[in-house]
Each structure stands twice: as structure tokens, then as C-alpha cells.
């Protein structure tokens, strides 16, 4: 069990929202089968990567953004996008940052910005 402060939006709240919307927003997500296996060991990182046929390649193309603003409401002059994966220790790596966008936050666009990562356990991974 965990507690989240629902009064303050932030990274943890975004991950929580993303996880619980995958089942139609009902508030319940069934535990992945890998966590119920008899030989599962949460302290062994190789446990999550035992099934190589279940791994997937994640490719995210960053194209454009519109009306990107700072928390205080001002328009971003040089927007940058951060993409990362949150999941098992084998899947969680450093984040990928794009170059500063062409244009301002009102009509930003990127060319040839791609984030690619092999996901060993897709059932436990979230893009953040």
C-alpha cells in the first residue's frame, strides 16, 4: 500500500494516472503473471529478463509540441523533451533529452529526434 498526495500534481501522480487508466480507468490493474510465478525473485534483476521472446522494442518519435508553457504560465523559449522508462531495474535507464526545439513553445518542432530502448519486461514498464 502507498499513499500519494492528490493535491499536488507531479511525476509520481502522472505515473499513477497512467497505470490505472490502462484498465478503462476502473482503479484496478491485475498483477502481471511474471510476479505470480513460483520462481520469481524480486531481488534478482535477471528474473525480469528470463523470457527474451516477451521483450519489446520501444521507439518514440518526438515530432512537435504546441502551447508549451512553464509552471508560471510563460511560454517556453527553447523547449526540450525528456523521455524515459520506469519499470524493472533492467528497463530503467537514464532519460533521453532532445535538442532544443526549433521555434518557441507556441509552435515547437523537432527533426530526427527518436528515443529507442529495448524493454525486457513490458508488463511492468511505463513511459515517463
Question: What labels describe this entry?
Answer:
two-stranded antiparallel ribbon, alpha+beta, single chain, 11% helix, 128 residues, two-stranded antiparallel sheet
Write the layout of secondary structure elements.
Blueprint: H1 11-20, H2 33-36, E1 56-66, E2 82-83, E3 85-86, E4 96-97, E5 107-119, E6 126-127
Antiparallel strand pairs: 1-5, 2-4, 3-6
What does this structure look like?
The protein is of the alpha+beta class and 128 residues long. The chain is 11% helix and 25% strand. It has helices at 11-20, 33-36; strands at 56-66, 82-83, 85-86, 96-97, 107-119, 126-127. The strands form three sheets. Strands 1-5 form a two-stranded antiparallel ribbon. Strands 2-4 form a two-stranded antiparallel ribbon. Strands 3-6 form a two-stranded antiparallel ribbon. The longest helix has 10 residues, at 11-20. It is globular. The mean pLDDT is 82.
Short description:
11% of the residues lie in helices and 25% in strands. By secondary structure, the protein is α+β, with helices and mostly antiparallel strands.
Mean pLDDT: 82
Shape, per Cα inertia axes: globular
Largest sheet strand order: 1-5
The value of Rg in angstroms is 18 Å
State the end-to-end CA separation: 22 Å
Along the chain, the helix and strand elements come as HHEEEEEE
The main pleated sheet reads as: 2 strands, antiparallel
The helix-and-strand class reads: alpha+beta
Model regions low in confidence, pLDDT < 50 over at least 5 residues: none
Amino acid at each position: 500500500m502507498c499513499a500519494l498526495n492528490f493535491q499536488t500534481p507531479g511525476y509520481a501522480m502522472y505515473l499513477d494516472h497512467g497505470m490505472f487508466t490502462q484498465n478503462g480507468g476502473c482503479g484496478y490493474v491485475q498483477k502481471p503473471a511474471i510476479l505470480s510465478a513460483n520462481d520469481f525473485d524480486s531481488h534478482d534483476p535477471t528474473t525480469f529478463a528470463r523470457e527474451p521472446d516477451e521483450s519489446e522494442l520501444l521507439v518514440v518519435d518526438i515530432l512537435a509540441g504546441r502551447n508549451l508553457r512553464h509552471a508560471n504560465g510563460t511560454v517556453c523559449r527553447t523547449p526540450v523533451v525528456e523521455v524515459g522508462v520506469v519499470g524493472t531495474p533492467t528497463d530503467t535507464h537514464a532519460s533521453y533529452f532532445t535538442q532544443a526545439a526549433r521555434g518557441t513553445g507556441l509552435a515547437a518542432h523537432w527533426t530526427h529526434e527518436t528515443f529507442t530502448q529495448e524493454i525486457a519486461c513490458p508488463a511492468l514498464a511505463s513511459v515517463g
